Amino acid sequence: MKKIGVIVVLTMLVVFPAISWYYLRGGINYRKEAFAEMVSKGPFDASLLNKSLQDKIQNHVTIVDLNGSDKTAKELLSQFDKVNEFLFLSQHQVDTLQITSEALSAYKTTYTNADYVLVDLEGNVRSTYKDNTDDHKLLVKHVAILLPFVEKNNRLNNAQ
Questions:
Q1: Is 123 contained in some domain?
Q2: Main-chain phi, psi angles of 87, to 5 degrees
Q3: Residue 75 in contact with residue 69, Cβ under 8 Å?
C-alpha cells in the first residue's frame, strides 16, 4: 500500500507538471515561430481609405484583398466574420466594406506580387500573401495568431 501511495504522490508532483510544461512549451514555441514569420514591414498607409474605413481599421486585424479570387475572399470572410476585431477590405461583393479602386491601385503598386496584405491591431503590415492554397493556410494561421484572445464566458463577471 505504501508503494502505491508513493507512486501516486510522485505522479502528482512530477509527472503531471512535466507533461503540462511540455504541452505549454509547445504552444509558446508555435506562437513564437508564427510571429517570427510575420516581422513588421512598417505602417499601413490608411490615408488612402475613406474616413469611415480609417476609423474602422484601428484596433482591428485587417486583410486587404488586392487581387484575390472571389471564392477565396468568401472563404476568408466566413472564417472570421463573427470576430469583432477582424476586418476584411475588398472590392468583391462579399462584405459591405469595399475599398475604392483608387486606393486599390495605390496598394497594388506598393505591394507588388501580393494578393492579400495582413495588417495587425497597431496598423503595421505583417505580411503579404499570394492567392494559392499554401499562402491561404498561412494567412488563416497568422490572422488567428494576431487576433486578441477574448474569453466568451467570463465567469468572474457572471458570478457578480
A1: yes
A2: -140, 140
A3: no
Residues of the chain with pLDDT > 70: what percent? 90
C-alpha 52/C-alpha 117 separation (Å) is 19
Q: Is 17 exposed, middle or buried (0-12, 13-18, 19+ CB in 10 A)?
A: exposed
pTM of the model as a whole: 0.76
Query: Are residues 67 and 136 both part of a single domain?
Result: yes
Domain that holds residue 107: 46-146
Q: Mean of the pLDDT values across residues 91-111?
A: 80
DSSP annotation of 43: B
Torsion of CA 68, 111, 56, 154, to 10 degrees: 80
- Least Cα distance to 42 among 138, 110, 143, 136 occurs for 110
Distance between CA atoms of residues 21 and 28, nearest Å: 10
- Residue 123 near residue 57, CB atoms below 8 Å: yes
pLDDT at 19 over 70: yes
Mean per-residue pLDDT for 51-80? 86
SS3 for 68-113 is: CCHHHHHHHHHHHCCCCCEEEEECCCCCCCECCHHHHHHHHHHCCC
